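User: Teach me something about this protein's shape.
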Amino acid sequence: MRDGPTSKVNVMSVRKIAITRAEVDKSLYESNRRYGTGRRSIASTLRKVFLGTTVAVSLLTAVSPAFASSKAVVKPSHIPGIVKRDFAVNNEANATLSYSLQASHEQGTSLAMDDAAFRADRLSGYPTLDGARYYPFTGSNVSTSLPFQTSYPAQFAVLTRTVAPGTPTAPSACRGTGGLLVEQKDTAKSNWRVTLEPNVPVVTAVPNFDVGSPGYGHFISLDKAPALTNLPSKLIAGLYSRARTGVGGPLLPASAFAGGCTHLGMGDPHTDVGTTNGLTSSFTASTLAPSDLVIYATKGGGALVMFTVRENVSQRPPAGDEILRRHQTSIGLAILNLLPAGHYGTVTWTIDQQVAIAVPSTTSSANARIVGSCSGIVSISGTPAA
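Assistant: First, the predicted structure itself:
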């Protein structure tokens, strides 16, 4: 952090500007995930531009398992092998910073965040996602929701518990963490690829999927759940409220922005507005188009809703000053190298935020709570100083 941005008062004098949330919070967030919370890498920042490749659940085909199971394009017995392969490819990609391997098992915002992380680590001179050495990990399947589907694209969701053998002692402090994976196969010849991957700080906080005796789960049709499809807009309203007032409402309590093993560690937009030591920041948030929202039924008439929102943080120095971006060498700040070193009049951060929200009823968003979160910088842009 000693190499953070500075404000150039004049050609003879350069003063420090306090490093803002876009830098410190992302670095701290990485440190939290270094202790076993993240799926993509035990030590990686949760990073990820929407590529428009995910397919909304409303486009997927789900029919009753009363039809012969042999007609299903994917069966419950296939899931363990699919998830095991995904973790294996993920580990190999992270250990080699291979874009092609990453793209072979991810798409959408998941791929965008991880590609940004790979670019940043390569620019920083690191051989792996963790820095000098990569620590492989996997996940044990806790529960799965596989709707009965007879055509492609096909999709399922799985909750995993993180298993990290051989990882340094400190990460073992984060026991009971895991992640939700939404896996999708677009055609009969394509790979299964992760489209969403919210990290879950407390696995037991995720409600059980509604799974029938044949082993198949259920989608919640988007056109039949308006209260749930409005959750992205409600989340954005909460983010704006948090940015303006420091209060995000019932969906975004203060604990959502706390760090540590058992907390979501979401980036706090309240630090992205106003002026800090002369550097003025502004915050915006929006939904994605097309949407990547998916809804899976949970036991007792509830649902698990997962989607991505896009956040932008813009920064500018006082008139006549500039932001000096230096090359970063710390693995914790490697993501900042997405913006080349230089002098800038403004800097804009684009951040994707994936969430998993549990709701007790499909007819109302009351008592909704965020149980999983994954965010990451996907791009940093700047306008050169005059």
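Now, about its shape. The first strand starts at residue 6 and ends at 8. Helices lie at 21-33, 79-96, 99-105, 108-123, 226-229, 231-245. If you'd like, I can walk through any region in more detail.
User: That's plenty for now, thanks!
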